[in-house]
Amino acid sequence: MRAICVFPTDMKLLWESIEWLHRHICRHCKELGIRRPRNKYADVAASYLSYSKKRKRKASRTRMLKRRMIRLLEKLLIQRDEIHREYGASLRYTPDYRKRLSVIRKVLVQAKEMFEGRKVSDRIVSIDRHYIRPIVRGKETKSVEFGAKVNNIQIDGISFIEHLSFRAFNEGIRLKDCIRMQQKLMNVRVRCVAADSIYANNANRKFCTKYGISTSFVRKGRAAKDEPLRRVLRSELSRERATRLEGSFGTQKLHYSLSRIKARNRKTEILWIFFGIHTANAVLMIDKIRNRTVKVA
Fold first, then answer.
1. Are 13 and 107 in contact (CB under 8 A)?
2. Of the candidates 105, 129, 82, 88, the residue with the CA atom closest to the CA atom of residue 17
């Protein structure tokens, strides 16, 4: 499951860095009672405002403005460092300020590399949420997604977070961990597993065969003697996965605030995802308890 988020473009990321840095330079100069250093902030601000209002933007104009913004950001960092070198003892910096400044320095380095046509690894896509990384999904509508990637297991409709990461990971190699987690939670041996096709690798198939676990994976090799029964079981498992598990993702996103997470730091975002998934679990468990009570009565 993906927690969907919206992030700025390269141009907006540069502008946010410039705006934040210029604002703090002005604040430092006011506190120290010194003259504000000269730069092209006003000119670039006017150009960026005009650029952002246009519906169609030429590549040549985008490249020209990007070059100006990179140069301005570099100059602002130099001016800020000069103020710190001369008056650093009189200024007080918060941990958030220091962290944001280090992120902006990295944004500048990456922007220069991308402007020169080089590929950038570990790319920053948000100043506030610097831990987020782009994840290529290969979908038609959204080739790249951002946010936390969650590997869920579901037992009788109740979802559990098996693994959560803000970086790309291959969930296909985590089937063994999912099965062990289920057995640890429920203290019951797993007999059947329904999973997406990405989990149907040879290692997982051998593991499931070794421990007598039936799966929803498409058959490989020759058919067994009881193939008709296995085909029915695979079909039933696939149907349950498609309706229950995939349906729960849509429910959590639409009704439990996981469609667009507005948290601005790692811990809050993890907590947001945790509460979204387990609030949906709590509602489902209440319905199960009510149905059981009605049957008993």
1. yes
2. 105
